[in-house]
Amino acid sequence: RKMILLLIVACLGITTLLTFLFAPFIRSYAAGGVCRSEARLDGKTVLITGANTGIGKETALDLAGRGARVIIACRNMTKGAKALASIQAACPGAQVEVRELDLADTSSIRAFAQKFLQEVSQLHILINNAGVMMCPYMKTIDGFEMQIGVNHLGHFLLTSLLIGLLKRSGPARVVVVSSMAHNFGWIRFHDLHSQGSYNSGLAYCQSKLANVLFTRELARRLKGTNVTVNSLHPGTVNSELTRHSTLMTILFTVSSIFLKTPQEGAQTSVYCAVAEELHAISGKHFSDCSPAFVAPQGRSEETARRLWDASCENLGIEWD
Ligand SMILES: *[C@@H]1O[C@H](CO)[C@@H](O)[C@H](O)[C@H]1NC(C)=O
Ligand SMILES: *[C@@H]1O[C@H](CO)[C@@H](O)[C@H](O)[C@H]1NC(C)=O
Question: Which family is annotated (predicted)?
Fold first, then answer.
């Protein structure tokens, strides 16, 4: 038994040593692709949800640096003001604003959109970035399960309310931050809100698959307009998204060398928002600033349409 113990310790020791030795290589591999486009966004307006921390904030900073007017929509105005100050400190002269939006409350989304449409005359880039990951069972104000409610339905409603403005401002882009986790998801049409049984991981995967299906169906419906929509996997990013799961937080902290920093994680969002070569690309999925694999359940046109109808029904809206 001593031998086995010794062996385990030796293995751990060697692994640690190798990790340190190869740290620079591991880091550059983990960092993934970089958005090489130098496109400017002077005179353009960007709206990004959930941009007070993590990749959303880094995306906002990058786009503000390209000259865009960036509007950050977040739930907590205190945190929003902090993000605004830090973006302005990092990028003097940045045109950034914060507006209040709670994606877990359809009346907040409607109030936000109404004010937005009154006060902002153009919208060129909408980034559906905000996300909830693996929270305990919770409901939104409207009684939706929190992850499908915020990650999918909240953004579905927001996009529907702003699509007219996007079309009038075209060429315009919608960018949907999904995840590789969509691979492990399926849409539980019989129990979209996990009332029968709840698994936080599966509900997360379902919501990220919904992001992919929404992107593809919206792209189909936007054909012939000057608005494109693409989804993306930002990478495995060290961010506050893991706040609901102690296990994930520990895992992410221990393995942080293998993870992207929020700035690295923002690259594919920035790429989808600005890359010149994507001007006519719509309904696609990206990762590391390159086209990425979409799981079969994310490619089903029938599922996409069915989810579209279910989403309209849940929200009590019509969108065609
Ligand atoms: C907003 O964030 C601040 C600072 O992080 C926190 O103290 C406050 O409780 C938050 N407010 C709400 C409504 O969550
Ligand atoms: C799309 O934009 C181009 C250039 O801005 C414009 O010429 C064209 O009419 C627009 N098409 C539609 C369908 O709005």
Answer: Belongs to the short-chain dehydrogenases/reductases (SDR) family.
Residue 73 CA to residue 49 CA, distance in Å, equals 5
Q: How many domains is the chain built from?
A: 1
| 96 beta partners | 70
Residue 13 falls inside a structural domain: no
| Ligand 2 atom having least distance to the Cα of 225 | 13
Tell me what pLDDT residue 241 has: 64
Q: Residue range 12-34: average pLDDT?
A: 71
Establish whether residue 77 lines the binding site of ligand 1, counting it when its CB lies within 6 angstroms of any ligand atom: no
What's the average model confidence in pLDDT over 160-168? 98
Q: How far is the CA of 77 from the centre of ligand 1 (A)?
A: 8
Ligand nearest to C-alpha 226:
2
Ligand in nearest proximity to the CA of 167: 2
Residue 284 is assigned to a structural domain of this protein: yes
**In this model, does residue 111 exceed pLDDT 80?**
yes
Any idea what the CATH number is for the domain that residue 118 is in?
3.40.50.720
For ligand 1, atom 13, which residue shows the shortest CA distance?
76
Task: Tell whether 32 is covered by a domain.
Answer: no
Q: The pTM is what?
A: 0.90
Q: Considering only CA atoms, which residue is closest to atom 11 of ligand 1?
A: 76
Burial of 135 (0-12, 13-18, 19+ CB in 10 A): middle
> How many residues are there in the chain?
320
Is the per-residue pLDDT at 147 higher than 70? yes
Instruction: Tell me whether residue 16 is in a domain.
Output: no
- Phi, psi at residue 42, to the nearest 5°? -60, 135
Q: Which whole-number Å values give the CA distances from 3 to 11, 13, 15, 17, in the listed order?
A: 12, 15, 18, 21
Segments forming the whole domain that contains residue 129: 39-315
**Residue whose CA lies nearest to ligand 2 atom number 1:** 226
Look up 204 and say whether it is catalytic. Answer: yes
Mean pLDDT of 135-141: 96
